[in-house]
Amino acid sequence: MVESPQKSTIESVEDLENLLSEPSEDVIKTMVALDGDLVILGVGGKMGPSLARMAKRASDIAGVKRRIVGVSRFSAPSGLEQRLNAWGIETHHCDLLEVQAYAQLPDAANVVYMAGLKFGSVGKESLTWAMNAFVPGLVAARYRDSRFAIFSTGNVYGLSPVSHGGSLETDPLRPLGEYALSCLGRERVFEHFSRVNHTRMSILRLNYAVEMRYGVLLDVAKMVFSGRPVSLQMSHFNAIWQADASAMSLQALAHASSPPFVVNISGPEVLSIAQVALQLGELLHKPVSFEGVESDDALLNNARQAFQLFGYPKTSISQLFPWLANWVARGGETLEKPTHFESRSGDF
User: Fold this and answer.
1) Residue 25, helix vs strand vs coil
2) I need a labelling partner for 21 at 20 to 30 A (CA). Which of 1, 123, 297, 339 fits?
3) Residue 200 β-bridge partners
């Protein structure tokens, strides 16, 4: 079994990237069983680089020769393309809103779809819908004979009572706000082409991947460390270590079907914002203050189907607290992209 070692601290971004891309034995087995190359659309996002590298590492360990191609605009001078290339991942420049660009996309038997727009969607509602609901139709047509793992979000469920333990895949969908509505649009467009063209798809409703540079845990830790009050408006949340989320997402390729297979991806706990803040405050040696009133509902997933298929996360949320406290206290690098976890209006 290949599992993340239980380190006491994460010392560097390189160390973090290694942990985030370390494949489990189950991912390696999945890469052995899958035929053909892998294209990752939207590789430039928060999860894309480490997921791509995990797929590459798993394929190499398994001795499977496979092209792994990351597709993105690569518009920001971040050095991402060079890092991907250094990891053995090919790159392809593409704006997925440009219809004529699809003919140049590389063929692949397997597609991980990670493209979309969330943050900054307020004021850019038309672009949000174009990215989240129009692009999927173009992608589904281009890769109609491929196998898909499609990233979605638990936001499509809307708020659910904390006492219920999170929404199940069979629960009614009541998305709140333009972002969540457009994500349901993404799911429905993919579902349509899955049914019409018999394209095998898995839809992954993720709540929420976290690592040291991004996520709800980081947002709370930064509030505590800086002495800002922690909002209780969204009283509870789910979280999963990003490496575990990537592993489950890659494994979901093997379960793709027509009509699409839908699975929640998250951690097993319903986490209290207040309790998380207090625990981080103790590790950071900082007093904790709060604002607002705890709600009795929240955006919550129940991922028990994923655990039955893929096993429980290899890294527990409790292990992340000391890692994160150390990272924040010494000023570790972050992506500077707040999650706005406290938003109950669906505006991002």
Assistant:
1) helix
2) 339
3) 147
